Amino acid sequence: MMNGILEIRRYVFSLSGAVFAVLGIGCSAFAMENVDVGNEISRIKKELSQARVERQKVAEDISKDAREFADYERRAATRKSGCIAETDSIKRQTALTVKKSDSLAAVISGLQLKRKQYELMQEAFRQSVMAACARIQAFAKTTPDAASNQSIGPLTFLMNDCSSKAIDNVEAVRRLMQIIQNLDEASAAIRVGQETAAVPEIRGAGSMLRIGDIFEAVTDDDGKVCAFWRGPDAFGQGRWGVVHDPAVAAVVLKAINVRQGKALPSFVDLPYNVSSVKEAKK
């Protein structure tokens, strides 16, 4: 734009020089030749008038260019101001985002800490369940075989699942409560049926009578030999007392028949403390 203005000014100056040159040439010609002065003056006036018009146009162009340049400067200043404001806004948003990110990181760190604490609590609870299983299993081993067999196996299986984390604590507690309930029901129930005796004197399955977790007896089918549960020894092994007395075996068979409804109801004096008992370890 400025280059155009300079070009216009150079054009005006060259045009003025041309006019003066024409005047000089005209004067010289007038002096040298006899020409029409009026026509020459009219021509010069006409050229001067045209020069003034050109100069006016150049002045208007310069004014227009100046206005356009001022308008451009105003627009540039406005745009610059907008860019600065937008940059400041972006900086504020960036700072706010950094604060939010730091806050979120703190929340995540807190949640991770709580998760770790929860996992430690879950592990401690799992260990408590396993310890409870071991205590209940130790108690179950002090009960007769028919009662303990219902609990020892499930307790061992439950401890293995807890150790391998195959189940969660909720399922572990549910299963433990079920085992405890079964053990409690077994300790208050009277059961009869066929059971493989733990002593070699009774071969194969014998008739079994169990009263809770305090009494269990097994007799052979012939009613000659009877074995009584005597509890665990110092090493936790089951002890059985074997009685080779058909009368004692008959009493146990009678109690079994009464319980099964094969004999008339009657009171049976069970031989809790029979003499001449031979003990055998399971």
Q: In angstroms, what is the radius of gyration? A: 60 Å
What share of the residues lie within helices? 55-70%
Number of helices: 5
Given the C-alpha coordinates, what overall shape results? rod-shaped
Record field, number of beta strands: 6
The run of helices and strands is: HHHHEEEEEHE
Mean pLDDT: 81
Percent range for β-strand residues: 5-15%
Record the strand order, biggest sheet: 1-2-3-4-5-6
Major sheet description = 6 strands, antiparallel
Unreliable stretches (pLDDT < 50, length at least 5) are 15-32, 276-282
Q: What is the topology?
A:
Elements: H1 2-32, H2 37-140, H3 145-163, H4 169-187, E1 190-196, E2 205-211, E3 215-219, E4 226-232, E5 238-243, H5 246-260, E6 278-281
Antiparallel strand pairs: 1-2, 2-3, 3-4, 4-5, 5-6
Helix pairs in contact: 1-2, 2-3, 2-4, 3-4
Brief summary of the model shown:
With 282 residues, the protein is α+β, with helices and mostly antiparallel strands.
